[in-house]
Write a structure and sequence with these properties.
alpha+beta; Immunoglobulin-like; 2 domains; 6-stranded antiparallel sheet; 4-stranded antiparallel sheet; 3 helices; 13 strands; globular
Length: about 210
């Protein structure tokens, strides 16, 4: 429903009969309402499929990853929306998982040396890689994506960077290569994350 702000010659918001109120450079005007076209071109269909795959992949990460680690560093958008913006291109036609970053930041990243699924547990071995701003007490977290089911698995808790190992326990009955895994460190002041690193990706393999 359209709204006339104050009098018939004032600013109009929304649709009124066959016209739509709008503004340009602070000047209000009316234009004819035209139903948006939806031509379903191959390029549009591909873009929608890309978007759907990317959103489906990212939604389960909102609480465990974006809210916890990235939202505070994005002033004009959520961590979820930033992820979509940065990674959308990697989801067509088959996701390019090694190019996907779950987190981005200036903290020195960890160097993942192996990710092995033992039959119950995904064991990630990593080099602390302190670089120029890492600290032994930085916290490391991760996420494992099971491609056939679209299910995410996470560690029970963070570990310190100096530990060099972190586990995720999805349970039994899985194939190692079906897991795509990401790991990253975060630096804290008290309970507040003050810096994060780019995530490191590796596909799981058998021991």
């Amino acid at each position: 429903m359209g709204v006339i702000m104050s009098g018939i010659l004032s600013k109009v918001s929304g649709k009124v009969a066959g016209v739509v109120g709008a503004s340009w450079k602070d000047k209000a005007y009316l234009r004819a309402w035209v139903k948006p076209a939806n031509p379903q071109t191959p390029a549009q269909v591909l873009q929608r499929e890309k978007f759907e795959r990317c959103v489906s992949f990212a939604k389960p990460l909102v609480g465990q990853v974006f809210n916890a680690y990235t939202d505070r560093f994005r002033k004009n958008m959520s961590g979820f929306n930033y992820f979509i913006k940065r990674n959308l291109a990697h989801f067509t036609p088959t996701p390019d998982y090694p190019s996907v970053n779950l987190t981005e930041g200036p903290l020195s990243y960890i160097s993942v040396t192996s990710v092995k699924y033992s039959g119950t547990t995904i064991v990630c071995q990593f080099s602390p890689n302190y670089g120029n701003n890492g600290d032994p007490d930085d916290k490391v977290f991760g996420a494992a994506y099971h491609k056939p089911s679209g299910t995410w698995y996470f560690p029970a808790a963070e570990v310190v960077r100096s530990a060099g190992v972190i586990d995720i326990v999805p349970g039994t009955g899985f194939t190692a290569s079906d897991f795509e895994c990401w790991y990253w460190p975060a630096q804290y002041t008290g309970a507040v994350v003050t810096m994060i690193a780019d995530s490191w990706h590796m596909q799981a393999s058998t021991p």
